[in-house]
Write a sequence for this structure.
């Protein structure tokens, strides 16, 4: 079985192209927060705090973002996991739909537990 050379991969990370600017951060945060508030089906609401640290993977259409959020009952910041998103014409959902779906699932599971 082929074993990847981790050291070589870490040294090559600087050669990867930067992530393309696929969204306006402030507008996206406002839109997602507005949509999550409208979708709320319980007492707990999620609020996106920040989207940062965009980085590409070895696959040209996959990238990672650290999306932090908190809940209306807890001020602690959480990170959305998994944090990989796809930006490809053949992928059925766009980035905004992927992000919203993940956050809506988290909000729904929190409200079911309350």
């Amino acid at each position: 079985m082929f074993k990847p050379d981790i050291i070589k991969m870490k040294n090559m990370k600087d050669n990867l192209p930067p992530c393309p600017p696929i969204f306006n951060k402030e507008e996206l945060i406002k839109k997602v927060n507005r949509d999550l508030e409208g979708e709320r089906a319980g007492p707990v609401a999620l609020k996106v705090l920040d989207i940062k640290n965009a980085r590409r993977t070895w696959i040209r259409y996959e990238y990672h973002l650290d999306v932090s959020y908190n809940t209306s009952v807890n001020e602690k910041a959480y990170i959305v996991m998994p944090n990989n998103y796809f930006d490809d014409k053949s992928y059925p959902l766009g980035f905004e739909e992927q992000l919203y779906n993940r956050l809506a699932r988290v909000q729904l599971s929190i409200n079911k537990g309350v």
Summary: The longest helix spans residues 95-113.
